[in-house]
Every structure is written in structure tokens, then in C-alpha cells.
Design the sequence.
């Protein structure tokens, strides 16, 4: 029995040694993985240090662009307001010109039409007179012959 206990003790010691060796190998693997992860993290940190000023610069430029767009929008709105005022004035002026034209037309048209009618009537009268005079002259000329 002592022999079995001794053999059993040796087998247990060998198993424990194998377990320790396995644990050591696993620790070495985990250590390599952590070292690889650490290297990657350092690389990422270095990249982020290089990118950070560029990102800040880009954000500053975006901010300036937004300010310029806001200023341009304000100027456009101001110009639209001025344009609306100008259009309103032009509309009022056009309406005033149309009213003035209608007043002048209403004031001038009747006398002009009366004058045109008078001239037409006089010319028709003169024409009728000369036509009548020519007929009368022809009748007198025919009668004299």
C-alpha cells in the first residue's frame, strides 16, 4: 500500500508540474497578447496625437465657415428687405404714373377728339363744298354749251 501511495504521490506531483508548466505557457501567451495589445494602443495613441490638431483645425474652419454663412445669410436677408422696399416703391411709382396718364388722357382726350371731329367735319364740309361746286360748274358748263 505504501507503494501505491508513493506512486500516487509521484503521479500527483507530475500532474502538478504539468499543470504549472501549462500555466506558465499560458501566462507567456497572455503576456505576448498583452504586449501586442499595448503596441497597438500606443500606435493608436500616436495616431490620435497626430490627428488631434488636424481635427481641431477642421472644427475651427467649420466654425468660421458657419459664421461666414450666417453673415452672408444676414446680408442676403437685409438685401431682400431693401429689394422689397424698392419693389414696393417701383410699384407705387408705376401706379402713380398710370394714374397720371389716365388723368392726362381724361383731360386731353375730349378736347383732342372734339378737335379731330371738328377737323373731320370741316374737311368733309370742304370736300362736299368743292364736290358740289364742281358739279355745279359742270352743270353750268353743260348748260352753257
Sequence:
Amino acid at each position: 500500500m505504501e507503494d501505491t501511495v508513493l506512486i500516487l504521490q509521484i503521479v500527483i506531483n507530475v500532474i502538478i508540474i504539468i499543470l504549472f508548466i501549462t500555466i506558465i505557457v499560458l501566462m507567456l501567451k497572455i503576456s505576448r497578447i498583452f504586449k501586442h495589445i499595448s503596441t497597438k494602443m500606443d500606435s493608436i495613441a500616436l495616431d490620435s496625437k497626430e490627428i488631434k490638431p488636424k481635427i481641431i483645425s477642421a472644427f475651427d474652419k467649420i466654425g468660421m465657415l458657419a459664421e461666414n454663412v450666417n453673415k452672408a445669410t444676414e446680408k442676403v436677408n437685409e438685401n431682400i428687405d431693401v429689394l422689397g422696399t424698392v419693389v414696393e416703391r417701383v410699384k407705387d411709382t408705376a401706379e402713380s404714373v398710370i394714374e397720371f396718364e389716365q388723368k392726362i388722357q381724361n383731360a386731353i382726350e375730349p378736347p383732342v377728339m372734339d378737335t379731330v371731329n371738328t377737323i373731320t367735319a370741316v374737311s368733309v364740309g370742304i370736300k362736299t363744298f368743292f364736290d358740289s361746286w364742281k358739279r355745279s360748274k359742270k352743270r353750268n358748263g353743260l348748260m352753257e354749251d
About this structure: The chain has a mean pLDDT of 88.
